[in-house]
Amino acid sequence: MISGARLRRAVRRETIGVDVGAALNLVGALVKYLSLAFLFPVPFALWYGESPWPFLAAGAITAASGFSLERLSRGKERVGTREGFLVVALTWLSAAFFGALPYVLSGEAQFSNPTNAFFEGMSGFTTTGASILTDIEALPRALLMWRQFTQWLGGMGIIVLALAVLPRLRVGGRQLFESEVPGSEMERLTASIRETARRLWVLYLALTAVLVGLLAGYGLSGIDDEMTPFDALAHALTTMPTGGFSPRAASLGAFGSATQWTVIVFMLVAGTNFALLYTVLVRRRGRSLLRDEEVRLYVGVAVLASLLLFGDLTAKRILEGEEALRHSAFQTVSLLTTTGYASVDYVQWPTLAAVGLVGLMFIGGSAGSTAGSIKIVRHLLIGKILRRELDLAVHPEIVSPVRFSHRPVDEKTLRAVIAFVLLYVGMFAVGALLITIDAAVGNRQVTPFEAIAAAATALGNVGPAYGFAGPFGSFEPFSGFSKAVLMVLMWAGRLEIITVTVLFTRRYWRT
Q1: How far apart are CA 238 and CA 146, in angstroms?
Q2: Residue 408 carries which DSSP code?
Q3: Which residues contact 311 (CB under 8 A, 6 or more apart)?
Q4: DSSP character at residue 134
Q5: From CA 139, how far away is CA 468, in angstroms rounded?
Q6: Which helix (H) or strand (E) covers residue 404, if one does?
Q7: What are the phi and psi torsion angles at 184 (to 5°)?
Q8: Which of 53, 173, 252, 458 has the fewest CB atoms within 10 Å around its CB?
């Protein structure tokens, strides 16, 4: 006879299709290694005469939690496709939670509410750039640098970093890589996922170092007297991940034109497919850039939107000449690449400009970049699908495969693109509706346009919204419920929605 316990275990094996223990075991290992990141701001704390205690304590708590979870579970080597979704989703939630600990432990009044600290942690690791801070420059320098560093870690991806530097972490690397890397697909540079991850991180680090050198050089040479070495590092750490956090209340508006033009270029670079950048910069295949349809459309959208915004600003005599062109290009590129920096308070611009800038939040950069939102490639493929359907309506007998950069795209990929866009629009609409209802119930001054902008900026990982949550404002006035909605949108948006939504389907958990 079969005992009751054995029967229950047999039923569980038949009904649960996810090895939760293996997933938790891997999450524990990743959280344990994440604790090393808390050492980064310690030298800054010592240099500026601040207490390193919040970071050391947060690191110890993170390490202990990860080690305990790893010890209490088993089987990370069994992680497969299904478990990969759970690992990625839980790792990013854990990163936001533990990343908020220095804010809580700092004793700063702006983080007295734990929800605000978690919001800042989530916004940092998801590279959203939305902030609850009302006085950024009042924070200790080390805490500001931690805030910047969370975005740099989140830009290329925590798990991609783990795959790159932890060769003994024997897991389903491909499943984790594809679940975390933003975009419809990421080209593998080598036969090894670990080697691909390593090369992407090396390129990411190199581009960050170049930007640090340029910005620091501007300050030291007198080209931009406002740019200190601290500011140079801080802004490089959030430009390459298209994050947008700044230790300055005026964001990039605090600096001169040379700095702003340089950041425009690097935001454009950060919004480009990193695998393609590696091919161009390291393998020196410059023609690959010119042949890529996504890159051509990406640059075209940036140029066209900048010129339209420039025309609107000059026609209404809000700005003129080089200043108008610079701010138009800066804000266009900042919102297109979902960086979220501000060079000027664009909330004061005309309605047409405001609507256009919010529209850019739904476009995004290239697949395989650090940018968020829908991504250029998906817009491109949706356009090709629509054109094919129109052709088939006129000529039903023709066979017309959709091609991307002269290569046919399989129908499975096209269906995935359509599903993603539908989920994206649906989640955005629900988020905006919930924020609007919450504002009405709580009698808060949030207009429908401000709710739409807030939902769009959170789901697209852009950063600033409109109204009190504009580029020089704060998300602090939102209620706890609205902040929770925005955090869910940030989390889902950074993980490309599918990774998160699949966890809430019955079929995912069943065999």
Answers
A1: 11
A2: E
A3: none
A4: S
A5: 21
A6: strand 403-404
A7: -70, -30
A8: 53
Structure-token pair, residue 93: 């939630």
Q: Give the pLDDT confidence of 125-145 residue by residue, as tens digits.
A: 999 999 999 999 999 999 999
- The count of other CB atoms within 10 Å of the CB of residue 351 is 9
Calculate Rg over the CA atoms of the chain. 23
Beta strand 403-404 with 407-408 is antiparallel
For residue 292, the tally of other CB atoms under 10 A from its CB is: 20
pLDDT in tens, 73-89: 887 777 777 888 888 89
Supply 272's token pair: 């480009």
Cβ neighbour number for residue 3 with a 10 Å cutoff: 8
User: With contact defined as beta carbons under 8 Å apart, do 401 and 409 qualify?
Assistant: yes
Give the chain's count of helices (H) and strands (E). Answer: 24, 2
Beta-bridge mates of residue 408: 403
CB 429 within 8 A of CB 402: no
The CA distance from 175 to 502, in Å, is 14
Among 270, 223, 42, 69, residue whose Cα is nearest residue 141: 42
Alpha-carbon span 61 to 101, nearest angstrom = 9
CA separation for the pair 34, 57 (Å, rounded) = 14
Task: Name residue, tokens 């990929």.
Answer: 413
Of the two residues 281 and 485, the one the predictor is more confident about is: 485
Instruction: State the maximum Cα–Cα separation within the chain, in Å, rounded to a whole number.
Output: 87
Give every CB contact of residue 459 below 8 A, 6+ residues apart in sequence. 373, 424, 427, 428, 431, 489, 490, 492, 493
Find the length of the chain.
511
Quick one: 146 exposed, middle or buried, by C-beta within 10 A (0-12, 13-18, 19+)? buried
> With the CA atoms of 104, 116, 126 and 419 taken in that order, what torsion angle do they form, in degrees rounded to the nearest 10?
140
Q: SS3 of 407, please?
A: strand
**Two structure tokens written together for 493:** 């948006």
Cβ-based neighbour number of residue 81 at 10 Å = 12
pLDDT of 350 reads 87
The rounded percent of the chain whose pLDDT value lies above 70 is: 89
**In degrees to the nearest 10, what's the CA dihedral of 169, 172, 177, 183?**
-170
CA distance 492 to 498: 8
Q: What are the backbone angles phi and psi of residue 5, rounded to the nearest 5°?
A: -65, -45
Contacts with 162 (C-beta within 8 Å, 6 or more apart), sequence order: 30, 33, 169
| Nearest residue to 139 (alpha-carbon basis) of 97, 103, 99, 114 | 103
Region 160-184 average pLDDT: 52
Q: List the beta bridge partners of residue 403.
A: 408
